[in-house]
Amino acid sequence: MPDISIIYCRPCGYEKRAREAATALRERLAVDVKLVPGSGGIFEVKVGDRTVAKRVKGHFPDAAEIVAAVAAAG
Fold first, then answer.
1. 56: which DSSP letter?
2. What is the pLDDT of residue 16?
3. How many helices and strands (H and E) does the chain possess?
4. What are phi and psi for residue 73, nearest 5 degrees?
5. Which strands, in side-by-side order, build the sheet including 33-38?
6. Is the CB of residue 51 less than 8 Å from the CB of residue 29?
7. How many angstroms separate the CA atoms of 44 and 48, rounded?
8. What is the pLDDT at residue 68?
9. What is the pLDDT along the chain (74 residues), one digit of tens a residue?
10. Which residues of 38-71 are buried (b: 16+ CB within 10 A; e: fewer)?
């Protein structure tokens, strides 16, 4: 499987969500996840160069949604 990364807005306080999603991915799919701090409200989950889940206005993907998106992309 290509590299998996979660880019999250550190000033927004999204680090906890990113860590929870990374833990869920490790436990359920046995994959390594790279956490990448960012800014500007970003929260994106990427498999390789492809964004598979992200925060959009009014919706924040939960761990189950992120795991399903990464599994489908793999």
1. B
2. 97
3. 2, 4
4. -80, -25
5. 33-38, 4-9, 43-47, 50-54
6. no
7. 12
8. 97
9. 789 999 999 999 999 999 999 999 999 999 999 999 999 999 999 999 999 999 998 899 999 999 999 999 97
10. beeebbbbbbeeeebbbbeeeeebebeebbebbe
pLDDT, residue 58, reads 84
Closest CA to 5 of 63, 40, 53: 53
User: What tokens appear for 72 in the block?
Assistant: 């489908």
Q: Which residue has the tokens 């924040």?
A: 60
Give the helix ranges, DSSP H, for 1-74.
15-29, 63-73
Whole-number Å distance between alpha carbons of 34 and 18: 10
CB of 45 closer than 8 Å to CB of 54: yes
pLDDT at 63: 94
